[in-house]
Every structure is written in structure tokens, then in C-alpha cells.
Amino acid sequence: MPRQTLSQHPALQRMLAGFKGFRALYYEQRPERIKDLMEGSQRPEVLLIACSDSRVDPAIVTNAEPGELFIVRNVANLVPPYQPDDGYHGTSAAIEYAVTALKVAHVVVLGHSNCGGIQALAAHLDGHQVDGQFVGPWIRQLEGCRCASETTGDSTADATRLEQCAILNSLDNLMTFPFIAERVKDGTLTLNGWWFDMTEARLWGATPEHRTFQVLTD
Amino acid sequence: MPRQTLSQHPALQRMLAGFKGFRALYYEQRPERIKDLMEGSQRPEVLLIACSDSRVDPAIVTNAEPGELFIVRNVANLVPPYQPDDGYHGTSAAIEYAVTALKVAHVVVLGHSNCGGIQALAAHLDGHQVDGQFVGPWIRQLEGCRCASETTGDSTADATRLEQCAILNSLDNLMTFPFIAERVKDGTLTLNGWWFDMTEARLWGATPEHRTFQVLTD
Amino acid sequence: MPRQTLSQHPALQRMLAGFKGFRALYYEQRPERIKDLMEGSQRPEVLLIACSDSRVDPAIVTNAEPGELFIVRNVANLVPPYQPDDGYHGTSAAIEYAVTALKVAHVVVLGHSNCGGIQALAAHLDGHQVDGQFVGPWIRQLEGCRCASETTGDSTADATRLEQCAILNSLDNLMTFPFIAERVKDGTLTLNGWWFDMTEARLWGATPEHRTFQVLTD
Amino acid sequence: MPRQTLSQHPALQRMLAGFKGFRALYYEQRPERIKDLMEGSQRPEVLLIACSDSRVDPAIVTNAEPGELFIVRNVANLVPPYQPDDGYHGTSAAIEYAVTALKVAHVVVLGHSNCGGIQALAAHLDGHQVDGQFVGPWIRQLEGCRCASETTGDSTADATRLEQCAILNSLDNLMTFPFIAERVKDGTLTLNGWWFDMTEARLWGATPEHRTFQVLTD
């Protein structure tokens, strides 16, 4: 089959052109920056759990280089609670691998404003049905979280509170994983919740102990 | 609490410095490129399912811009089969949201060489136990896939075959989702498997119909 | 002759690899950003006169895109006085072209700390001979400028003062060109002096009227 | 005077925002890449002589990093012949400094298609007057160069020939500088002429010995 028919669509061609640029600039122009990394093993210091939202790409938003961030992305950057059965737990598997095999030193849960998943949750809390056989159960993980019952009627403020509360809920769920609680206790792992205000271009942060979000960047 | 104690670690400071650069270059210098996007809705054309591996960041590897790629990342870029129960299916939820709500036109499953998850699978197929309460079941999803029983003894070739086979398996699993099969059938959605050879800096591609990987970029 | 022997040296190969990346990212991936520009005419708004110093590249330092800055670079970012004879006046020719043909709206003279040209001038003012048949006369253009006779004995402070004074001298020389004085007077052209403190990573600015440099970026 | 009135114009604000991004990404995020360079001395390997044209920025076109290229830019990337009088020879001073003080190993003269300076020369050769008190004499440096008298009537081909001929002329003029001829002879300096075809996105190269331009990048 002719190669061009494999990926002839403009959006895919654009990705392939981007790959050619990446190859030229990283492999050809400055191989010293990535050669050992690409031929050896990864040693990221950070596990980042982010939303799948196309506007909040962690590598773009933090100007990361290859090798720096081990990244899980799902709808609304959720961490489910520890549930060691035989099910397929994609997020938990990635967390386990990052913490126990790669021994990252930091976990960052990165949420954001204007999150579609959280908007679906808000609608659900208002009595509307969430569309989706999978999105529904996934997002309803949050219905028990503390702030879910507090609404002010100001939809933007409510959304922000829910988004930040969901981040804290993920941090709390991380602490239910024994291998995480243990490392946090002995000081070899930190847990961080960050919220990206996409309109104001600011990052806010909290931790399991300091649960009020504060601006991290002036 | 003083802000600096929230994220004082060098790896986190580096991410915050990167964010400041992102903000200056996107929000201040060239707001025209992202303003509507950040204040409005996302309209990505592509759902990309990639590995959590820090070396294979899709935005870096394809030089993506904010808004272009809706991204799911998990260990070994796996798509589980359609399983519409009430469990927490993070990958399936993201796929459902991208396809039915955002109406992406393309799905790309992006695998890569030297994949730790696939190495764990290879070890398992060789009779070794896979470490991890979550990684084990997650990666054993693949034990029934066609090529799992074919080994040549050449470990690099075996790894490549498993990595590519896992991508095809994910494409096949995508087709078990009714909302995907239907859109593929009516021509509004394409499924693409890409394999990134990290050593040679090449992208290879296949589709559900053309299952032999071919070089996509010279 | 075989192509590779033309540019086989590593430093040149690195430039060619960078060009391949540029081509992939600009011409192939996002042609909409430059196509009209590359096939049509330039319409820069800014004439920038900068030093040849490899550390102070204006496009890198301001994250410019193709088409934004019309750039002259010489040792110590000097503008000679208006001298309309038949000599070869490279800097004056570029200024004339930018202002009268391209009709830029702003001129920026960008100097910097730790400037080798200014260090040569300081040595000359101290009674040492400046090396160089061409560098000598070029840099001695400045010996009449106001601050040349004021030294404090603090070599860093002296260097900063000379660097900033040289920028003001270039702004004053720009005003000796009739086609510039006229446009400044009628408000269609602004003259700006910027000084890049390379150690502190700050930009300072002055104008012909406001001759004390002030920090431009927090 | 309030700082904002110094540089309140959008084009200048855009440059300052770019500078803030540069500072965040280079000085704060990855200081290890530039710290020694910015606090110490430059050691570029390449002297690049390029056109002032805003579309042909050498750092953008070759993806250069700070410290790599010592750059002279003037109209049409001309090198005047060796003329050791007391005049202000900006291009010669920069060449002298790069070769004798910085001891670069390579000189690249980078010309390009669709060059306004060369179009002015073509008009002059056709009997039209070149506008400009400075542009005129500057560009008429080329009137004696070999190809100036050969026209085919095909204006694109003529322009390309003139552009490439002007590059060769600059290489020949470089050889009239004793300190260059000597280093070329003893093999410590190479002279290279590159021509950037902006429409086709290709680089072509020649040298003083191999005067027919060949494609450098596939």
C-alpha cells in the first residue's frame, strides 16, 4: 500500500511534519541533549497527572524537555482510590510504575479552569444526566467529594471550587495507595495540586496539608 | 503559608519557570494564536493515545500547539476492550468524550520502541512475574494478543513485534466500541497506529486494514 | 564535487540540521504562518540595530518570528553620523532602506553589558592601543561622546555607562539623518535605546528625550 | 517618566513580552545552558554575514542557540573589499574582530532569493536609478562583478544569478583581507557561500573553489 494513503489527512500530515522538525532539531542538530536518554532509560523526577484537554498540554504549558515528565492524562485529571482487584486500572498502573519502578520524587495533579469533565459533574450535581456510558461513571467518582454539596449559584465560582476540590480529592486518593503514603511519610515523595487558570494565565497550588490554593506564579 | 514552600523543589521550580515562559510567549507576546481557544471551547481534530513514558511526549514529538491534540496517556498506550459496566474506565471515558462530544476525526495510537510496559509483558510471557498490583493486570490485557505466542529469541525483534502488535490490538479494541465502529464505517473517523523508533528517529504506521507497519517519514 | 564536502564541518552540519527543522516546522507544518510573507514582500514594523555578539541575538532574545524585525548588526551596535558621500556605508544604507523604503515605525538600538567593542573603547580611553585596522577606527567613533571623559575607576560601572552612552550616541546620530529627523518630528517614527544586562537578564530603555535608562521588564 | 510610556507601542510591547519569555526559559528554567556563556566570554565557531531582510533571520533559519553565531547583517549581505584607510568600515571591523580576536573557524555568507537589494542592483544595471543616497553606492559595489553584464531576460533566473554571484563576490572580497587569506591557506578558516531559496525552502552552497551552487539540504 502506498505510504501516503496511510496518513494523508491534513491533521495527520501536520503531525508528521512536526515529527520531522523534532527529528532534525533533537536527533540531528543537538543529539547531545537526548542521545543517552533515547538509547538508555528514562529517569523522570516528576509524575504529572493531567487532563486530556487539548488546551492544557503539560509539556507545552511547562516547556518540558523529553525525559522530564512521566505523564498520565485522563478526563478531569482524576486519581481513583486504591482498589487492588484484578480490574484494568490504567491510572493506578501508571502511578504505581512511576512511584515504585521509576522512583519519581514528586507527583503533580494538574487541573484547570473551564474543564469539560467538571462541567459534566456540575450538571450531574444539578440533577442533569451526564452523557456517556464511561464519562458518567468516571466523573461520578467525584460526587462524594466534600465541596460537591456546596453551591453558591455563581457558576464560575462553583466551577473553580469544584475543579480545585477535585484536585484535592485526587491528592487524598493518592494517599490511599500504601506505596505512596509510605514515601510521603519518609519524605521521599511530595504531592502537589496545581490549578491552571486558563483565562488569567496563572498557576495556583495546594498540597494535602495546605488545602487553600495560592498563586504560584506572579 | 509562604508560597515558596509550596513548590520549592528544583524540579518543580523548573516547571514553574517554564510556565512563566509559556505565559509570556503565548498570552502576552502572541495572544492572537490562543485567545479564542483559551476563552472558548476546544476543537481538536485528533485523539491521541500515547504511553506515559517521559521520552515520548506527543506534543514535543509532533511539535503540537495548544488545542490540536486531545491526549490520553497510560502505560503502554493501551485501549481496553469495550466493557460498559459501572467501573472506572479512564481510558474509555476519554475516548468516548473525544469521539462523541468533541467529534474528533482521527484516532492515533502512538507506541514506541524500548517500552517498559512491553518489556514487562515480554518478561511475563517468558514466565516471570510482573511486579505491581496494577501494572500486572494492566499489562496482562495483552497476553491474548496474537503475536504474544510468537517469539524468535531475538529480543529486540521480539520487543518490536510485541510493541507493534499491542498497537494493533488497541486499534482492534477501539473497533469494539459501537460509537467508533459506526463512525469508521461511515467514514467520519480514521484509526491509525504509529510506532516511534526512538533509536532511529523514525515513525512507522499501520491501520486496522493495513496491519504491516510502514515508514511514515523518510 | 560531492555535496558533503561542501559543508562537512560539525558546526556547519549543525546549522544545516537546524535549517531542516526550520523548514519542517515553518514550511511543512504551519505554512499558513509564513507563506504570504515568503512569497511576497516583507513589512517589518521595527528596524533593530544590534551588536554582532553571538550571545545577544535579537531574534532569540525577543522570540521574533520571520518578518518582524529588519536587523543591522555590527560591532557595538553603532550608528555613524550622517555622511552622504560616495563611500560604502553599510549601516547607513540599511537604515535608509528600512526607514524610507520599508517605512518601519520604530528604530531600536540594542546594546548590552559585557560588550567587547566597548571594552576596546575603554582600553583606548585609558591610553591603550586598540587592536585592529578596522576595529580601531570603528570604535573610535565614540571617543568624542559625552561620557567618554568621565571615569569613576569602577570598571563595571564605567563599562555600563559607556555602553549606555554609546546607545544614546547612536540615537543622536540617527537624528542627524534628515529622513529620520523628519519622521520623528511628524510622529511616524520612534527612536528607542535598549540595554540588555546579560548578567541580571533585564532590559533597560531610554529615548532621545528621556536619556536615563529605566528597567523595561520587571 | 513612567516606564510604560517608553515602549508603549504594540510592536515594542511584543518584543518585551518575547524577552520575558526568553528570560524565563533560558535564565530561570535552564540556566545551565547559558550561565557560563552569559557571565564569561563568547566563543562562536562561525561568523555569519547575512542580509538585514526580516524574513531571513539566521538564528531562526538555522535554529541557533545563544553563543553559536557571530553575525553581521547589512543590505544584501555584502562584504566590501579590503580598504585599510581610516573610514568607518562596519562590516570589515566585525569580520576582523570575528577572525582575529574570536578566531572563528568558518565564515558563511548567507544570501537569499527575492532580495530587495539585488532587485535594486538589477534595476540599476537596466539603466534605472537606484533610490537612496546610501543604498545606491552600497549596492553599486556589485556593478563590476562578473555576472552583472550577463542577462538572459528571464527576470527570476537573472535575479538568482545575481544573488549567487553577489555571494561569490563577497567570498572573493573576503580573500582580499590578508588575515583571512592567510588562515584559509593554512586550513584554519573555511569560507562558505549559502543561498536560501525562500520559495522552495532549500539551501544551496558554494565555496571560493567550487563556484557552482549545489543543494545542501534534501
Describe the protein's architecture and organization.
4 copies of one chain form a homotetramer. The first copy, chain A, has 218 residues and is α/β, with parallel strands linked by helices. Chain A folds into 2 domains: 1-40; 43-215, Carbonic anhydrase (Beta-carbonic Anhydrase, Chain A, 3-Layer(aba) Sandwich), CATH 3.40.1050.10. Helix content of chain A is 41%, strand content 16%. The first copy, chain A, has 9 helices and 6 strands, in the order H-H-H-E-H-E-H-E-H-H-H-H-E-E-E. Chain A has a 6-stranded mixed sheet, covered by helices on one side. Chain A starts with a helix and ends with a strand. The interface between A and B is large, with 96 and 96 residues. Chains A, B, C, D: Its cofactor is Zn(2+). Chains A, B, C, D: Its EC number is 4.2.1.1. Chains A, B, C, D: This is Carbonic anhydrase.
Please state how the strands of the largest beta sheet of chain A are arranged side by side: 2-1-3-4-5-6
Q: Which secondary-structure class do the elements of chain A indicate?
A: alpha/beta
Low-confidence stretches of chain A: none
Tally the beta strands of chain A: 6
Q: What CATH architecture label of the largest domain in chain A applies?
A: 3-Layer(aba) Sandwich
**H/E order of the elements of chain A?**
HHHEHEHEHHHHEEE
The number of distinct structural domains of chain A comes to 2
Q: What value does the average pLDDT of chain A take? A: 92
Mass-distribution shape of chain A: globular
Proportion of residues in β-strands of chain A: 15-25%
What's the level 1 CATH class of the largest domain in chain A? Alpha Beta
Distance between the termini of chain A: 54 Å
Assign the CATH topology of the largest domain in chain A: Beta-carbonic Anhydrase, Chain A
Helix content of chain A: 40-55%
The tally of helices of chain A reads 9
Radius of gyration of chain A: 19 Å
